[in-house]
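User: Structure with adenosine-5'-triphosphate, tokens only please.
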Amino acid sequence: MSKNKKPKLKVGVTGGIGSGKTTVCEVFEALGIPVYYADGRAKQLMVSDPRLVAGIKELFGPEAYLPGGTLNRPFIAGEVFNNGAKLQQLNRLVHPAVAEDADRWHQAQENTPYTIKEAALLFESGNSQHLNKMITVFAPVELRIQRVMERDGATKKEVLARMHKQMPEEEKMRLADYVIYNDGQHSLISQVLEIHHALLALTETA
Ligand code: ATP
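Assistant:
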């Protein structure tokens, strides 16, 4: 690929909790593709984006932040726990701020045929509409529970509670352009390579 070229495609990687999104994205990164990790970036923006900070203070009151400006996570978690409407209002503030930030990040990338945005809720938030191609990472529920319990030291009940807030896997697979099976039976690297080549072919004709 010639140098100083702007990326031609925006690709989304999504999947349920513990499906292996980050693991898959690390393989794309090894191929030189820049990845925007939306969930981690959202946490940063909630303390650094002045408009978002103001919106969160308006929604939850000044207790939303601790002295020094860090987010009062336990307070916010308590406010949205069992309050779907409030959680939705928070998401309505955070998702557009992340979408704008991701867009600026994408525009700033050079010398890459495409970029990747990784997030757990790309379909649920409607942000998949702003992406050219979508990849869903699939893993069986039992394996996801086991992996997250090991990774986070969480209980099975906690993992299930997080899973139940997300769109069913079958729906995400149906909506995706590509599905990666991270079930311990299929090679992740060969699946990523195949999709990478398909995406390169698309950017060559774009
Ligand atoms: P979350 O939605 O919670 O951010 P995720 O979809 O990004 O999760 P990962 O963090 O990539 O999932 O994977 C969950 C855990 O399972 C991690 O500890 C990861 O190292 C492990 N894991 C993922 N895929 C595999 C695999 N193919 N073989 C072994 N371990 C794996």
